[in-house]
Design a protein that fits this description.
four-stranded mixed sheet; flat; 263 residues; 8 strands; 6 helices; alpha/beta; single chain
Length: 263
């Protein structure tokens, strides 16, 4: 029997071990993926007994700075108030903890995050389509839609659609875009200059945030001014003079009946 080369044996062993490792990883990959989904990293702060530090810098339920105390003492104070001890700044040395109602805090935080997601989903890219030979009334209507989208904080994609022989007069579409930018004035910022894509001419505009902030401040000042100005005083009618009481009239003297005619 021919002797087996030691180097060749080690290479064969390495190849076999690598193949076995890859086979195991391939078979266990679905399980690992599911486990990673289940065991995600928690972003919630540590509370109560989960706080690991021996000492914490405590903030009371009313926001008053209590100072550095033992974690057990801080937890005892929280329990006396029927509240939770929440680690709000774990990176500090020692960590900063606050006494609060964690359930209420978590609910309010979820509500704020939900509102933030709603605001983010509202803003996006809107699209308005024009024709080269658009009617003046239709142009005014579509321009109003563009203004509404811009004031809501959205970007707007303006598309000029050409059909048939209109492709020979693309300058008409460019004139519409230039007219729209001129009509919008300081409200708009051109992000993407007009460019031809097939049978469409496209331009992307976005709102001028500084201009919108100035408009919002101006409206707020006007609202405050209207609230401060008191309504014009309404002249109250003068009370009518009471009639003078009438003096009781003396009863008229009753003349004695005329004596009977003498016979």
């Amino acid at each position: 029997m021919a002797p087996v080369d030691a180097g060749r044996g080690r290479s064969l062993y390495s190849a076999g071990a690598e193949s076995a490792f890859l086979f195991i990883v391939h078979r266990l990959r679905p399980v690992l993926v599911r486990h990673r989904r289940w065991c995600g990293v928690s972003t919630d702060p540590r509370i109560n007994e989960r706080i690991r530090a021996a000492q914490v810098r405590l903030v009371g339920a009313d926001g008053q700075q209590i100072g550095v105390i033992d974690t057990r003492e801080a937890l005892r104070q929280a329990r006396e108030l029927d509240l939770d001890l929440v680690e709000v700044a774990p990176q500090a040395d020692p960590p900063v903890c606050r006494i609060m109602d964690y359930g209420k805090f978590k609910y309010e935080r979820d509500v704020r995050q939900k509102e933030a997601r709603k605001k983010q989903s509202r803003t996006g890219l809107k699209e308005i389509k024009f024709r080269p030979k658009i009617d003046p009334h239709d142009y005014a209507t579509k321009k109003g839609h563009v203004i509404r989208f811009l004031e809501a904080g959205n970007k707007v994609k303006i598309t000029i659609m050409f059909r048939g022989r209109e492709m020979a007069h693309t300058e008409l579409g460019r004139k519409i875009l230039d007219r729209l930018v001129a009509d919008l004035g300081a409200l708009v910022v051109v992000e993407s200059l007009p460019k031809q894509e097939g049978r469409n001419m496209i331009m992307v505009i976005s709102p001028n945030k500084r201009y919108l902030e100035e408009v919002a401040k101006q409206r707020a000042r006007e609202a405050r001014t209207v609230a401060v100005v008191e309504p014009a005083a309404v002249a109250e009618p003068e009370p009518a003079e009471a009639p003078e009481p009438m003096e009781p009239s003396e009863p008229a003297a009753v003349e004695p009946a005329a004596a009977a005619d003498e016979g």
